[in-house]
Amino acid sequence: MVFFRSLSALSRLRSRSAQQSSLGTSVRWLQMESSSDLDLRSQLKEMIPEQQDRLKKLKAEHGKVQLGNITTDMVLGGMRGMIGLLWETSLLDPDEGIRFRGLSIPECQKLLPAAKPGGEPLPEGLLWLLLTGKVPNKAHVDALSAELRDRAQVPDKLYKFIDGLDVTAHPMTQLSAGVMFLQVQSEFQKAYENGIHKSKYWETTYEDSLNLIARLPALAAYIYRRIYKEGQSIPMHDSLDYGGNFAHMLGFDNPKMHELMRLYVTIHSDHEGGNVSAHTAHLVASALSDPYLSFAAALNGLAGPLHGLANQEVLLWIKSVVDECGENVSTEQLKEYIWRTLNSGKVVPGYGHGVLRQTDPRYTCQREFALKHLPDDPLFQLVSKLYEVVPPILTELGKVKNPWPNVDAHSGVLLNHFGLTEARYYTVLFGVSRSIEYARS
Ligand code: NMX
Ligand code: MLT
Q1: Which residue of the set 268, 282, 353, 417 is catalytic?
Q2: Residues 258, 271, 282, 307: which is the catalytic one?
Q3: Is 353 a catalytic residue?
Q4: Integer Cα distance of 434 and 427 in angstroms
């Protein structure tokens, strides 16, 4: 949103670098607690002029500083390893993984407010952290939950529009089309048509972003219930938080599934700016396309099998292993199955990454969730076995730069355990989570 509009030229390039520290991603803790302090918009209103000045100063004082050399490999590799985008909300270290405004995932789990003491972080807290760089307290997060519920109403016409799509259309196609339908509600577009001054762009961008984030769970849940539950939709709960409410509207009221959804949305929210969907969102937004237009474009990138759709592919692949070899597949059978996948010209889904060179910490925290809540689940045990068997095989191939699992290697078995078994739907959950980052493009 606000921090990037003025950097549209930069956002045409792709960043895959870990060198952001000079741009100041330090985290501050919120001390204040008056009622206006509880309002995210008021906080941003104070911060934004400061940030606009900071960026002007950065450009004026350091605009001519060289950030690296560009090689042919970097260009052929799709801007690999180049610094090309200012991305302040998160930083992806190849070895350590993602940090959100300087905080690792375990730190977020410790510091961000939870629904219950000791529980998983509420995604609203992460949204606050990403936008302000400050760790919110429970009162801030509760206020933001309430604000999102207030904004969550979608027009009935949206559902009629979705019903007009072929029910067999991929859930991501339905989601992206639904976002485009909602675009008529864009406040930014109206303001732009009315000749708004550029210093005020952030205000309507903020409105669009929060509205979109708030309305996506209803749209996404409708798509799920339409395709898999004979169209019986479930209204929003009037007091649940964002993640809990999303799970509820999908039809899951097991408290552990609510916790899983909070964790899921939090860890899928942002992954620095060089991935396909982030880059797309910011590229499209650099033309002053509103958040609906840029988010729909990002979703279309996320729907590719080497990106977000890999979570669907992982569960389908794991289930195909079970169909052929059974749940108690031996190590030898597993190795043979993996080689067969590779020799048929396919990738092993859920393994490898464009930047990461170690196990994704998003994989690790999902594994910890599984060890706590579903240690005996047979598919979880199979995922654990794959962790031992896949990396040596990918290493043996000799060309794979990262043989370790990414976020998608684990998410499906957790959802499957709690009854969300429809793999083809999984990328929609990834997409809703990413609205927390990309909607503000
Ligand atoms: N299985 C088989 N081959 C692989 C794998 C894998 N999991 N990962 C990389 N390779 C191959 C890759 O296809 C390429 O082969 P070739 O030279 O014949 O084209 C070679 O290894 C070098 O690729 P890398 O430089 O290691 O990876 P790159 O940065 O190009 O691609 C991914 C990154 C993530 C696209 C790739 O690792 C992959 O296809 N993984 C499986 C799909 C997946 O899990 N995607 C999800 C990523 C996370 N997300 O949510 O978006
Ligand atoms: C993501 O979360 O976007 C994926 O891990 C892909 C990436 O970062 O390149």
Answers
A1: 353
A2: 307
A3: yes
A4: 10
CA of 52 to the centre of ligand 1 (A): 38
Cα–Cα distance for residue pair 22/6, rounded to 1 Å: 19
Residue 250, token pair as written in the block:
């999908």
Best mutation site among 76, 346, 353 for ligand 1, i.e. most ligand atoms within 8 A of its Cβ? Answer: 353
Q: Where are the alpha helices (DSSP H) in 154-302?
A: 156-163, 171-182, 187-193, 201-228, 242-250, 255-268, 276-285, 291-302
CA–CA separation, 148 vs 205, rounded Å?
15
Distance 400 CA to ligand 1 centre (A): 7
Structure tokens at 43: 């906080």
Rounded Cα gap, residues 283 and 135, in angstroms: 28
For residue 343, CA distances in Å to 314, 320, 347, 363, 396 come to 17, 16, 9, 26, 13
Residue 259 Cα to ligand 1 midpoint, Å, equals 31
Nearest CA to ligand 2 atom 8: 275
Handedness of CA 342, 346, 347, 349 (dihedral sign): negative
pLDDT digits (tens, 9 = 90+) for 218-265: 999 999 999 999 999 999 999 999 999 999 999 999 999 999 999 999
Atom of ligand 2 nearest to the CA of 407: 5
Q: For residues 412 and 315, is the Cβ–Cβ distance under 8 A?
A: yes
Ligand 2 pocket: which residues have CB below 6 Å?
271, 275, 307, 353-355, 406-407
Residues of the chain with pLDDT under 70: 1-36, 441
| pTM of this structure | 0.93
Which of the residues 37, 258, 408, 417 is marked catalytic?
A: 408
Q: Which residues of 30-59 are buried (b: 16+ CB within 10 A; e: fewer)?
A: beeeeeebbebeebbeebbeebbeebeebe
Q: Identify which of 151, 135, 146 has the alpha carbon closest to the alpha carbon of residue 32.
A: 135
| Contact of 275 with 408, CB cutoff 8 Å | no
pLDDT of residue 34: 54
